[in-house]
Amino acid sequence: MAAQSSLSESVLGWSIFTIILLVILAFCWIYIRKFQSRQESEVVSTITAICALAIALITSALLPVDIFLVSFMKYPNGTYKEWAANNETRGQIEDTVLYGYYTLYSIILFCVFLWIPFVYFYYEERDDNNVNKCSQVKNALKYTIGFTIVCVVLLLIGAFVPLQPPPSQNSTQWDKVQYLFEELGSSHGLPALSFSISSLTLIGMLAVITYTAYGMSVLPLNLIKGTRSVLYERLENTEDIDDVEHQIEKLKSKCKDGRPLSSRDRHNLQELEGKLQVLRRRGRHLEIAERNCCTKVGSALRPFKILLGVFFILVALLFIVALFISNLDKALHSAGISTGFIIFGTNLTNPLNELLLALQPVFPLDYILITVITMYFVLTSMAGIRNMGIWFFWIRLYKIRPKRTRPQALLFLCMILLLIVLHTSYMIYSLAPQYVMYGSQKYLVQTQMPSPGPGNTTFATTRICDADAPEDQCTVTRSYLFLHKFWFFSTIYYFGNWAFIGAFLIGLVVSCCRGKKSVIEGEVEADDSDLSDDEYVH
């Protein structure tokens, strides 16, 4: 009976995960097809982008499953359910989640260090018309080997970084070497994988500070402010065209008597003709947008967008407050830098952590909320990348625009999202540390009270799982073990959270100061060709 109950609980958790998986695959296909260039799209790059984006979202969906399974092992009164009373059964369920993390994190390493770099450099080499297919593959492999070497180095460093006290100074060299190999074998390679993933998470932290923080402010404010009127934009664009045409005629009138234009006038004429070409293309796009039914539907849904924007900005502020309280709690109650600012449980009231614990009795509200939080970070990251483009320091590499994003830009987008998702787990832990560590688990505390008669009376009280709980009474999520394998990474993540808060506030100010977006935002740029307009003919 216990075995059947165990099976049913596991099947429930993984069934929900399977449904989410199907939704993720459908979303990835629609998202990539929306942004990819129709002129430059290729099957290989499309499949790679869809798979990489799906892996990023699936990995983020595994955290709620992890929390769900450890929470469902216990009743609300703190006792284990019949099927989870056996340590061996609990271990098997925990190993299932652990193997899930192993698999997905290994796939992420494969994508970041092998698959995506190879496809990216393959298409970079394709831009050179003089290179044949064989040379493309050879050159792409040459560059990819460099990424592979970095991955191997990270795995080796992680495998041999000692997590236990080393042998004494009096030990022989062989004892020390044997100790390192025992460290590697005893953990089944967990430190090696964890170190590699944590190294990538540091890059993901920079992407979160850059893109996610800005996306959390720009997405809701864009929904609230809306876009400019199409009619007004067309009128304004027509006036600009008339003004530029008048300036061009004025310059050309200088050479009617046969005199050549000065170099300055020729330069100005060239700039004005380029500007006129962009304005005419802009006019065509505005005309298409005015006839587009999506524009009319968007205008009808304006009140809903405002409400959604207000909701998103309130959620963003809730996250920032929860993150600030969590970081303040670590600063006041942790052992400091040398321990990675790790604390067990919460000492200050964290609103998001308390909300998740309050929703726990009504299944599956807490599970739905943690899933929504996870997907919120991913969607705001997408919004941040979409609005900023892909940058390398001060150099803008690619723009992310509907129907005209190059294959290399989509691959870059998916790689950035893979790295962001890795750091998202730590961000969610920072928002609700106690819930992410233990879920909704509780345990019983036996207390003895004096009784009127002989002896003492034993009372059992229920407490939420924390660091004071007996080891066999509370199960820690596998995600927590991955996040805190190395203390120095936790320290860097802690300071990264402060940088994230600062970046969000700066992005909020910038987004508030900006005006409404154009209804054709990002569709017309000066460096586009007229041929690209064919992609917008409906």
Automatic annotation (TrEMBL):
InterPro entries: LMBD1_LysCbl_Transport, LMBR1-like_membr_prot. Pfam families: LMBR1 (PF04791). GO terms for biological process: protein localization to lysosome. Residues 234-289 form a coiled coil. Keywords: Cobalamin, Cobalt, Coiled coil, Lysosome, Membrane, Transmembrane, Transmembrane helix, Transport. Its main location: membrane. It comes from the Eukaryota. The keyword Transmembrane helix applies. It is a multi-pass membrane protein. One of its GO terms (cellular component) is lysosomal membrane. It is found in: Lysosome membrane. Belongs to the LIMR family. LMBRD1 subfamily. This is Lysosomal cobalamin transport escort protein LMBD1. It comes from Amphiprion percula (Orange clownfish).
